[in-house]
Predict the structure of ABM domain-containing protein.
Amino acid sequence: MYAAVRRYEGVTDSAQAARLVNEGFVPLMRQVSGFVAYYWIDAGDGVMVSTSVFQDQAGAEESISRAADFVRDNLASLLPNPPEVMAGEVVASS
């Protein structure tokens, strides 16, 4: 399995961002080949983190591209700063 993690700082409205992600982005993630799970986390203080899990590296990489497009097209005012993006193989899980 592979995961992609994106950390957003300076979120202007976490409740609105969560609503738009749940209604618009989560369905997009489910369409990516090898989809396992997606999480959108409100870490407080204007920080939100997403984690996408896929069966293969290609799915994780596609999620990064789709996330960038979705943020640009739908969340730019709510997530004004570029995210810190990390991706890699899941080496432990439960």
Residues 8 and 83 are 5 Å apart (CA to CA). The two ends are 12 Å apart (CA to CA). The longest strand covers residues 35-44.
